[in-house]
TrEMBL record:
GO terms for cellular component: cytosol. This is Condensation domain-containing protein. It comes from the Eukaryota. Pfam families: Condensation. GO terms for biological process: amino acid activation for nonribosomal peptide biosynthetic process; secondary metabolite biosynthetic process. It comes from Adineta steineri.
Length: 312
């Protein structure tokens, strides 16, 4: 197989990107420069979207000719753009099925590979515009998904242990409708759930969506699994709340109490500040909360945080 076109493609994808610079995520502590070993301990948070939001998400994907992976990835890019204070050159890793030819679709075996997904965001883009760029990027990556990660790193003279896009990961799992009807040599196979005693963090920051059309009350969910070496559980829980709030703004339902978000407006209009945080700022500034000793310092701190999040 001629790999020359894929070699050129992947070189162009990473050209000009600082592959050793990590995203500006809200870490609680830095990993020691002298000890890069991971503990494997995880800080986790799970979000279960209600059926109305799930239906809105599916309808949006269908009407815009998107796969669920592409739409989920687009939301994650918007979230990282806001969370990292307007950082526009976002490069993360994702698992690719790597079954790029029809004859590979039904073969038994492990074909998956990890690939970089880079998107240079224009802050003036609307969400509708961003998803089209993500769709085009995903389709172009699919054409060259057979090119091994080791070759991508080697061609760009990168060391796997120093590459930042392998620290932040995204995945979308679709549970097949046929999973309940599997058989082998006249024996029916039944799906069993494995209860895990605890999550293991393989990456610094990862998000995984799961869509299960067979479930009645958990059709669409997502989980953050992040390194406890960097993040406290409370930090990831708050990040998950912010992600859910962004999701709700983009896919509002009739029963939603949120103000209408126009997806044709700039993605900078998507709000990262939770409603209770905005209310607290308002109370402090205009009504003064009780039991605050140093009111001036609290007002300054809250307004500073408020402006910082809004600007980003």
């Amino acid at each position: 197989m001629d790999m020359s076109l894929s070699r050129v493609f992947w070189h162009s994808q990473l050209e000009g990107h600082n592959n050793e610079c990590s995203l500006s995520l809200p870490v609680d502590r830095q990993r020691s420069s002298t000890n890069q070993q991971r503990s494997g301990l995880a800080s986790t948070a799970e979000i279960i979207f209600d059926n109305e939001l799930c239906t809105s998400f599916l309808d949006y994907a269908s009407s815009h000719h998107l796969t669920l992976f592409q739409l989920g990835l687009s939301i994650f890019y918007v979230f990282l753009f806001k969370l990292c204070h307007g950082e526009t050159d976002l490069c993360i890793g994702s698992i690719n099925a790597n079954r790029y030819r029809n004859e590979l679709q039904n073969l038994i075996g492990m074909f998956v590979s990890t690939l970089p997904y880079r998107l240079e965001i224009d802050s003036h883009w609307s969400f509708d515009e961003l998803i089209q760029h993500v769709r085009e990027r995903c389709l172009s990556i699919l054409e060259h998904s057979h090119y091994p990660l080791q070759h991508i790193l080697g061609d760009n003279r990168l060391n796997q242990s120093d590459v930042s896009f392998l620290e932040t990961m995204f995945d979308f799992i679709n549970v097949s409708k046929d999973v309940e009807h599997l058989s082998l040599s006249d024996a029916n196979l039944e799906q069993m759930s494995l209860e895990q005693s605890g999550e293991v963090s393989k990456f610094d920051f990862s998000l995984t969506f799961v869509y299960n059309p067979l479930s009645d009350n958990k059709r669409l969910s997502c989980s953050f699994v992040c390194s406890h070496d960097l993040f406290e559980k409370s930090t990831i829980s708050k990040a998950a709340q912010r992600f859910q709030y962004i999701f709700e703004q983009l896919f509002q339902t009739q029963s939603s109490k949120l103000p209408v978000m126009n997806v044709s407006l700039s993605i900078t209009k998507v709000c990262l500040i939770l409603p209770d945080e905005a209310e607290e700022v308002e109370l402090v500034v205009f009504h003064r909360l009780k039991n605050i000793v140093k009111k001036g310092m609290v007002v300054y701190s809250l307004i500073f945080c408020f402006i910082k999040v809004v600007v980003s």
